[in-house]
Amino acid sequence: MHVTWNHTALDVNRSTVFPAPYLGRKQTSFVIFAHTAGGELAVHYDQAIQAVCIRPQSLGLTWIQDGSVVRVRVDRPCNFSLEINHGTDDALLVFASGPDQVREQAYEHVLYFPSGEHTAGIIEVEQDNTLIVLDAGAKVHGKILAENKRHVAVSGRGILSMENFERHRESWQLLLDLSTCTDVIVENVTITDSCGWSCRVFGCEDVQIRNLKIIGQRGNSDGIDICGSRRVLVEGCFTRVWDDSLVAKAFDSGDLAHVLFRNCTLWNDFARPIEVGVELRAERVHDIRFENIDIIHSPTGYPLMGIHHGDRATVSDIHFENIRIEDTPGAQLFDIRITDSVWNEDRQKGPIRDIFFRNISVLDTLPVCLSRSRIQGYDDQADVRHVVLENIRFQGQAARDAAACGLQLMDHVSDVQVLAGEGPFLEPVQTEIEPADPLVLQPDGFYRGSFQVSLTNTTGREQSAACWYKLSPSGRGTCLPERETLCLLPGATVCRTVQVAVPPGKFCLHLESPDSHVLPAWRLIGLDLVLPEDLSQSPAYPVTNCRGETAGSVRLALRAGNLLIASDLLKTSGIVLYAAKPVPTAPGQVVFSVEETDQGLAPAVISGRHGLELAPQLRCPAEISYVFKNEPKVDRIARLPIAAKINGVSVVPLALLGLDPDGDVFWLEIEAQTQLPKRYPVCLFGSQVPDQICHMFARAVPAAQRNRRDDHA
After folding, report:
1. Which of 58, 102, 257, 570 is the right S-S partner for 155, CB 3.0 to 4.6 Å?
2. Could you write out the DSSP letters of every residue in 192-228?
């Protein structure tokens, strides 16, 4: 790739990113240049170009494609992503910076990094009235720390990076760290590859962060975290991070108040673009505003705008206004929730009041429906009151009620208002999935049956509805048809039959649609693993992942207190066996979450207060088992590696797994030892972290017991 600005070559920088589906790290390219007047950015690619996209779309930038060259007219300072061929792997991040507003003569002490590479380590601001300049072309390896200082600034078009440092010391977990400072300006610099949070403002007052660009790929590489600070402006910033982008928190450093995030562009490879919480340890968190923000990518299904609370603060006067949303398949539009989590420390939980969503626009047609948004309080004191949703639009259509917004109102919530803007209006098609013919176990080991899908057109006009029927975890079962488009007459309900064939385990049948007026629907399926007494009576179950990559197959039987396993995997690389004693699932615990959940392609399901419900913001194993402690509380998960066997057969006493040899039911998972690229192991039943998380384990039942039960029925 070769890039020029007004015919002058630009340095093309590279930084590491970790995009979905998280099979490996990649490199992204970016350029930085001074924009003093309009001009042409020319990008010469080394490949054929079929399509061009510039995000955010709100910039309205125009381009001309000339063979393998894309020419973009840039008429003002801005940050954007230039993407080709309907993907993001070759995206070029363009940072066209305006002039520095900080003046050197306004500071008594100046630390200057000229163009070139610098290994600086920890750059600690030791005096008030200090300016740190990272000049254009400078790449500084290190971090900046300012504690208890006044009148401090960081400026310039250089790069501050932690790419050469490992996160093995606490002192390296914050790249730009401003603590209990007053009168601070950060402008124009670019941050790459932080070991943890990229920019933290902790207990500060009177802070301005302008045109900060952040690229991160490590766990907890938040963008900008404003923590217990007052009078803070975050403006014109760009993030591509592997955690939350814009965050408001409080850690007993005083109230969090008068914080304005505006004119920013956000790309989240993981987690939430906009977040208030989770830690809110203050008396008050109020007057927090997110205005004129573009969310260009968020592929993981997390909330795009969240307020997550479990501490003592009274949270009020939070505004989300003029937010434009582009490529966010499966995401929640917003999630407001008061609940326990590992991050909360206060015994008392505070309420949430006066929340405003205005002029929120979902621009793109998405391949996976947005997940249902939700609002949920904790109890009568820690409740949620007065939430206003005004002019919420989906592909140009305005929502007139909670159903059209895809909003679920849960416990301890009151005074929620949905105010429609001007038409056209979104007229939702209600959907439902119910069992039809029972799923019956067949000799080949698959259960076969059908479900009835109902679609109801509540309007007085004809509507079409594109329906995509999906089974998760994918690559294991089938549903027919997979896709169809239905014509719905005014006021009519149309019923369709979907034939399903699945092996034992847990599955979610879900209805998706690219049409924003078709509401999603889902149905959880749980099917026993029936164990015969002889391996010759057992079908071969393929061990595969969500990408359809099959590692091998497994046959299973149970005789005289021994689990019998036959597998081609045992002739080569071996397997790992996991087992647990069944326990009741308590309210709030997760019952379904798979690898595709992380990618926004499949729902997660919990045992809610009133039955099964979609899980808010539970999109990865850490959220499930660590943050929200939602995992079923088994005594232990037994883990038994089984090395290669010449004959491909292994006999495992149940007692070796901590199970009762004379027991009748247990939970089981099998992991294939493979060389396949993976974020998660390749497991028979789709578990993500089987040594810690057991909710996807199959319920194993001896065939003799099942036959007795069927005879009795």
Report:
1. 102
2. E--SSEEEEEES-EEEEEES-EEE--STT--SEEEES
Question: Which among 300, 289, 297 has a CA at the least distance from the CA of 322?
Answer: 289
Structure tokens belonging to residue 684:
């028979």
Domains of the chain: 2-97 (2.60.350.10), 429-527 (2.60.40.10), 529-583+634-703 (2.60.40)
- Dist. CA 420–CA 424, nearest whole Å: 10
- The backbone torsions φ and ψ at residue 211, rounded to the nearest 5 degrees and listed phi first, read 55, 40
Asked whether the beta carbons of 478 and 509 are under 8 A apart, the reply is: no
Instruction: Identify the residue whose tokens are 């603590």.
Output: 179
The residue type of 452 is Q
pLDDT exceeds cutoff 80 at 625: yes
How many helices (H) and strands (E) in the chain? Answer: 2, 61
Q: What number of other Cβ atoms are within 10 A of residue 559's Cβ? A: 14
C-alpha–C-alpha distance, residues 32 and 12, integer Å: 8
707 by DSSP, 3-state: which? helix
Of 310, 343, 297, 202, which Cα lies nearest the Cα of 259? Answer: 202
Query: What are the tokens at 202?
Result: 């902790």
Tokens for 334? 């917003």
Euclidean distance between CA atoms 90 and 551, whole angstroms: 31
Check residue 688 and report its DSSP letter: S
Quote the CA–CA distance of 349 and 332 in Å, as a whole number. 24
pTM: 0.95
Bridge-based pairing state of the strands 39-44 and 69-74: antiparallel
Type of residue at 675: Q
Do the beta carbons of residue 310 and residue 342 sit within 8 Å? no
Report the relative pairing of strands 78-84 and 92-97 from DSSP bridges. Answer: antiparallel
Range picked from 1-10, 397-406, 543-552 for highest mean pLDDT: 1-10
Cβ contact 113:134 at 8 Å? yes
CA angle 236, 240, 244 (to 5 degrees): 90
Cis, peptide link before residue 473, omega less than 30° from 0: yes
> Distance (Å, rounded) from C-alpha 540 to C-alpha 617?
36
Rounded Cα–Cα distance for residues 146 and 596 (Å): 41
- How many Å apart are CA 535 and CA 500, to the nearest integer? 26
- Candidates 270, 261, 268; CA nearest to 293 is 261
Give the 3-state secondary structure of residue 269: coil
Confidence of residue 710 (pLDDT cuts 50, 70, 90): very low
Tell me the residue type at 180. T
Instruction: Please choose, from the candidates 199, 201, 277, 287, the residue with its C-alpha nearest in 3D space to the C-alpha of residue 239.
Output: 199
Q: 179 pLDDT exceeds 90?
A: yes
Q: Counting Cβ atoms within 10 Å, is residue 676 exposed (0-12), middle (13-18) or buried (19+)?
A: middle
30: tokens are: 């970016």
* DSSP at 503: -
Structure token digits, residue 709: 């039960």
Q: pLDDT tens across 71-97, in order?
A: 999 999 999 999 999 999 999 999 999
**Strands, DSSP E only, in 298-331?**
303-309, 314-327
